[in-house]
From TrEMBL, chain B:
Gene3D superfamilies: P-loop containing nucleotide triphosphate hydrolases (3.40.50.300). One of its GO terms (cellular component) is plasma membrane. Keywords: ATP-binding, Lipoprotein, Nucleotide-binding, Transport. PANTHER family: ABC TRANSPORTER ABCH.1, IMPORT ATP-BINDING PROTEIN. GO terms for molecular function: ATP binding; ATP hydrolysis activity; transmembrane transporter activity. CDD domains: ABC_MJ0796_LolCDE_FtsE (cd03255). It comes from the Bacteria. This is Lipoprotein-releasing system ATP-binding protein LolD. It comes from Candidatus Roizmanbacteria bacterium CG03_land_8_20_14_0_80_35_26. Residues 2-222 form the ABC transporter domain.
Amino acid sequence: MKNLIFIFRSAIDDFSRNKLRTFLTSLGILIGVFAVVVLIALGLGLKKYISDQFEAMGKNSLFLVPGRVLSGGSFTGGVSSIAGRFDDRDLQTLKKINNVIGVAPLAFKSTKIKGLLKEDFGDIMFSSETFSDIMGLEVDRGRFFDKSDVSKKAKVVVVGSKIAEDYYGSDEGAIGKKITIDDVKFTIIGVTKSKGGGGMGGFDYDSYLFAPYTTGFIFNPDKKFFRLSVKVENENYVSQVKEDIKKEFLKRHKDEEFSIVEPTELMSAITSIFSVLNLILVAIAAISLLVGGIGIMNIMYVTVSDRIKEIGIRRAIGARKSDILSQFLAEAVLLSSIGGILGLGFAYLSVLAVHNLFPAYIDLTSVVLALGISSAIGISFGVFPARKAANLEPVEAIRYE
Amino acid sequence: MIKLVNVSKEYIIDSEYTFYALKKASLEIKEKEFVSIMGPSGSGKSTLMHIVGLLDKPTTGKVYVDNKEISRISDDDLSKLRNEFVGFVFQQFNLINKLTVLENVMLPSIYCRKELDFDPNDRAESILNDFGLSEKRNSYPNKLSGGQQQRVAITRALMMKPKLILADEPTGNLDSKTGHEIMMLLEKLNKEEKITVVLVTHEKDIAAYAKRIINIKDGEII
């Protein structure tokens, strides 16, 4: 133990005498660990971002979209509506399937919206009362439209928090007010809780308006929907319901005219693509760790040659081969660990810096991995120079000038 | 205490020429002796000392330490003997310049695996004090004079309470006054501490401190 403390202390002494050399030698490992940890953190962040987007939908939902959705492909297939769209009959078919407790059709309208403070183009989603449930939408103030609103074709609308803010200045200011959508007056009955998000795989719900799909037929006279969402009683029935829907729909549609998507399926497909991509990036970054290791090996060889006499002296006064070996190994491990710790530190700072924009994070595994790999590099690249030092003949080493 | 029987050290230069640094040398050094090995440079006296000091192994012949043949013992056991049994003093002092005087003196205790019957720090300080080096204990060796450095080296050699001190031209890098001071110190250690001293030198007046002189020439003891 005293030996080990001594070894590390003298290694640190040595480094403080050669600060620049120490820093430059660890730089390779620093950059390698930094790159690997940051890329893993970004990968984790991406995964979290995607799963957050999907999580709100719940595990007991199914989506029907027109056309083929390639496995792991784009989720926007419905929006383009190249293939045909679903109609009211499809909606009624779904309602009759066992264990389906709710169906939310979806139609879009992009049109002029006029509020108290602003007049601009906006997007309205027309759906059923189940929509808020399936999409995990929460209402902050007021209420979401209900079954009777749908059956009465009520001209009510629920607005996203951003819309309330932009058109009425605040949530409170929007409730109960009239809003004009394409020259039709609606009453605002609720404001949704801000969800953030938007972009990949999801909508920025904060900037949408939501109204009953029956009311939406004003703007959608042919009563078509580009997406049908289904809520199943519980997640165990999901695959059965999926089969039943398929069977029923094949009576009216061709196989390639519609797709039934499970959010979890889609999510795992997207996640796995990004995971592979991330893994490739991490592997490329890991090459720099290898280069860093070679740098350490090089410097350790130089150090051994510089200190042949010292090695001879130590051997003469009783150091064993293993003492010399551990001394040089300790220096190599310390060098690479310094790089590893600094790299981890810089990675942490970088992740902290982007945290507001992107949910990247460093997990315990990457910390353990970074420190483990950097000391492993120290050992594996330090062992050759250290063995060279240990195997020097004492008498030749001490005569060395 | 140490016995060499027909010890040779050969260096094969090429297929036709082999250099004999030592040729069938036999000698015995008894406990508490003060012996000088004397010879001109290149005579093989340093090789002889390295073999006596267990730093080097002979090509042929046998070396006994306390009646135990050591040619077959492991490198670790040799290191242990060098650590506990022998203390070296070299011509170039061979202190480690990046360690302080005190650290240099204590270095052998770091490499000792057995339980010590003394506190290394106390012992180092007390010997340094005896040698008038107390104030220099936190200095670095290259800031000291040659005589001071050699006294530090002797302190280091004494650290592990060795039975044998091997001094290889200990006065070679010192002026004659300092050289004699160092010799008087070694003589004192032999007389008062009963430590066996083996001295290698080419200077007659230095060799004369010893009670017995072994002459060596061209690798042979004469």
